[in-house]
């Protein structure tokens, strides 16, 4: 079986949750950021959520998911192990 590589697929952790959450598409990322906003109350995350809700092009989507990954990595919430 051939697996296709999708740059949008990764695993991340929510604060105070021990189970990693798999993000496979933009809608998954949007739901994840909504939940993160509820848990963390971080203004940067709220701003990211607002911009994700207004995304209109695939370029915006890829840029915002990249920014999400960067924010997760700086907070130690991005899962380093590859997806299986």
Please explain how this structure is put together.
With 84 residues, the protein is mostly helical. It has one domain (10-74). 51% of the residues lie in helices and 7% in strands. It is built from three helices and two strands, in the order ββααα. A two-stranded antiparallel sheet has the order 1-2. Strand 1 and strand 2 (21-23) form a beta hairpin. It is globular. The chain starts with 9 loop residues before the first strand and ends in a 10-residue tail after the last helix.
Main beta sheet: strand number and arrangement?
2 strands, antiparallel
Mean pLDDT: 86
- Low-pLDDT segments: 1-5
Radius of gyration: 13 Å
Structural class: mainly alpha
Individual helix count: 3
What is the first-to-last residue Cα distance?
Answer: 13 Å
Number of strands: 2
How are helices and strands ordered from N to C? EEHHH
**Shape category:** globular
Strand content is: 5-15%
- Lateral arrangement of strands in the main beta sheet: 1-2
Q: Helical proportion?
A: 40-55%
Q: How many separate structural domains?
A: 1
